């Protein structure tokens, strides 16, 4: 991957301010990439567009409707 095509990583707006717990995401052509912000050179998890959309939609659903 060249510098011009490097993903632009961003942290979740829900990340803690202490810097101890955070994931970063980067939008790519066919979905997103996810990594641990404390280990930027570590593993990257690719997630397809459809799966990411389902994940985000699930987060926005009424959590009180879920079984305990």
Characterise this structure.
The chain is α+β, with helices and mostly antiparallel strands. It has a domain at 21-59. The chain has one helix at residues 49-60; strands spanning 10-11, 23-28, 31-36, 44-48. Strand 2 and strand 3 (31-36) form a beta hairpin. Strands 1-2-3-4 form a four-stranded antiparallel β-sheet. The radius of gyration is 14 Å and the shape is globular. It is built from one helix and four strands; from the N terminus they run ββββα. The mean pLDDT is 82. The termini are far apart. 1% of the residues are buried.
Nutshell version of this structure?
With 68 residues, the chain is an alpha+beta fold. 18% of the residues lie in helices and 28% in strands.
């Amino acid at each position: 991957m060249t510098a011009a095509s490097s993903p632009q990583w961003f942290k979740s707006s829900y990340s803690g301010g202490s810097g101890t717990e955070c994931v970063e995401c980067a939008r790519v052509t066919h979905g997103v990439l996810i990594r641990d912000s404390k280990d930027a050179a570590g593993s990257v998890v690719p997630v397809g567009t459809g799966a990411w959309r389902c994940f985000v939609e699930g987060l926005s659903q009424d959590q009180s409707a879920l079984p305990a």
